[in-house]
TrEMBL record:
Start-end of DNA-binding region: 39-58
Organism: Amycolatopsis ultiminotia
UniProt-listed PANTHER family: HTH-TYPE TRANSCRIPTIONAL REGULATOR RUTR (PTHR30055), MYCOFACTOCIN BIOSYNTHESIS TRANSCRIPTIONAL REGULATOR MFTR-RELATED (PTHR30055:SF238)
Stated name of the protein: TetR/AcrR family transcriptional regulator
Coiled-coil residue windows: none
């Protein structure tokens, strides 16, 4: 049984290494050549795998660009639903962001660099294409709805009230755009969890200030 478990773990690690190589190659090509003109065959060649291996792990180019984000809606929903009494939605949102960042930072340095490099490349690719920007924004809308519902509960307002919706949109937009700011584009900040957390605090302080003006 132990040998079977070890073999299973080795297989999972090999699978993850293959996925990492494919996604790293894809994002590098998307940023260097352009998302539209990059083919799955070119990605397979750059990753040194067969084309069918690419499509097995990532059926489409969109899966390569938008997949494998550690900041999942499911984990955010779980964190918001487990808030302590008196803990605000924005405080829980910050804790979720920080906890996810610190979890990433606990990995080996090479893995950390890979994650942040991917996010920077993804932001670069999406930011240069109107259609991809629109798709990315649509993908974040469920996060806005979730945060707005909890903010409305904090404020004693209906879930579709303007203030919680504005605050949620501000928070999500700010956190999304964070990776395209000058601070994160600099080589030092891109690998600094502390620098990123400071920017998260700026975003959420901005959203909180907007809520305060309506009280």
């Amino acid at each position: 049984m132990a040998m079977d478990t070890q073999a299973g773990h080795r297989q999972q690690r090999r699978k993850q290494r293959t996925r990492d190589a494919i996604q790293d190659a894809a994002l590098t090509l998307f940023a260097g050549r352009g998302y539209r003109v990059t083919t799955m065959n070119a990605i397979a060649e750059a990753a040194d795998v067969a084309p069918r291996t690419v499509t097995f792990h990532f059926p489409t180019k969109a899966d390569l660009l938008f997949g494998a984000d550690p900041f999942t809606r499911e984990s955010l929903e779980a964190r918001l639903n487990s808030r302590a009494e008196g803990e605000s939605t924005l405080a829980a949102l910050r804790d979720w962001m920080v906890a996810t960042m610190l979890e990433l930072s606990s990995e080996a340095p090479e893995a950390q660099r890979r994650v942040w490099r991917r996010r920077a490349l993804r932001a670069q690719v999406i930011g240069s294409d109107d259609e991809l920007r629109a798709r990315a924004r649509a993908g974040y809308y469920p996060y806005e709805q979730l945060i707005a519902a909890h903010l409305a509960d904090d404020l004693g307002l209906p879930a579709d009230a303007l203030v919680p919706r504005l605050a949620a949109a501000t928070s999500v937009t700010g956190l999304r755009e964070l990776y395209q700011t000058h601070e994160v584009e600099s080589s030092d900040a891109a690998e600094s969890t502390d620098a990123l957390i400071a920017l998260v605090d700026q975003v959420l302080a901005f959203a909180e200030a907007g809520i305060e003006t309506t009280r």
